[in-house]
Amino acid sequence: MDDPVLLTGASGHVGTAILDELADDYEWRCLDRDPPTDPDRFPGEFVVADVTDEDAIRDAVAGCGAVVHLAGDPRKTAPWDSVLANNIDGTQNVLSAAVDAGVERVAFASSNHAVKHYETERKPDLYRTGDEFRLDGSELPRPGNLYGVSKASGELLGRYYHDEHDLSFVAVRIGNLTKGHPPKDYERGQAMWLSYRDCAHLFDCCLTAEYGYEIVYGISDNDRKYYSLENAKEALGYEPLDNSADWTDE
Ligand SMILES: NC(=O)C1=CN([C@@H]2O[C@H](COP(=O)(O)OP(=O)(O)OC[C@H]3O[C@@H](n4cnc5c(N)ncnc54)[C@H](O)[C@@H]3O)[C@@H](O)[C@H]2O)C=CC1
Ligand SMILES: O=C1O[C@H](COP(=O)(O)O)[C@@H](O)[C@H](O)[C@H]1O
């Protein structure tokens, strides 16, 4: 990818994981609605803008070859007015501007909460090693909250912009990103742990692989898991290095 890559939500946890590993690998254009408190941490230009601001996003995306779209309200308790504006309107605005600017591909931060209700009738067994149940990305969403609804909506917006405008789009249903080690005393979190370096590698794959429309799961290669990594491996070449079992007693 020779053209600049727009990274929305660059100041957050996922943005940090990506930039920690890939700062020098792309010409980044970082964007967040809040000015950075530590500007030296960011490579390239930093754009202060809200993803719901149509004009600002059109300017920000101009000349970019790809977008990694992370910006949004990440709270599983987020109220409808916030996810409607930040997550749904914001994502539509980013995708529309990307298509108009001729951007080739968008990687979108979706969430485990888009499919949370598959767990309802299977927990806690599915969090445990030996349980064979897997979600693989081909299943319909079953959101666990309005935040999950907004993430499923982002996946659907990507489907539309891919089918109608030929935009390459990948939705990464991110599990539980935590730095250093998986969460303790939280089986679900261990089953869907995503380490910082695997997160960066996965988004690197999203920026280099050839694909049309994909939904993949973003977790490390945990012994405990109920998300299949097959599509991330096959469609993107994802090769995770970490496993929550290396940190926990099962
Ligand atoms: N951290 C995790 O384990 C997971 C994260 N995700 C998704 O990944 C994305 C990033 O999550 P985190 O980095 O953890 O969240 P975060 O809250 O640390 O970062 C989000 C960033 O987006 C910015 N932002 C929020 N609304 C904005 C708007 N309207 N315009 C411009 N910037 C805006 C915030 O200022 C913040 O810097 C989110 O979309 C979240 O839903 C999904 C699943 C798990
Ligand atoms: O989508 C998200 O999921 C993670 C993990 O969810 P949790 O139910 O295990 O807390 C969450 O930490 C993050 O804030 C959210 O954006």
TrEMBL record:
Residues 5-177 form the NAD-dependent epimerase/dehydratase domain. One of its GO terms (molecular function) is NAD binding. NAD(+) binds at N86, S111, Y147, K151. Its EC number is 1.1.1.388. InterPro entries: Epimerase_deHydtase, Glc6PDH_archaea, NAD(P)-bd_dom_sf. The keyword Oxidoreductase applies. Coiled coil: none annotated. Homodimer. Catalyzes the NAD-dependent oxidation of glucose 6-phosphate to 6-phosphogluconolactone. HAMAP family: Glc6PDH_archaea. This is NAD-dependent glucose-6-phosphate dehydrogenase. It comes from Haloarchaeobius litoreus. The lineage of its organism: Archaea, Methanobacteriati, Methanobacteriota, Stenosarchaea group, Halobacteria.
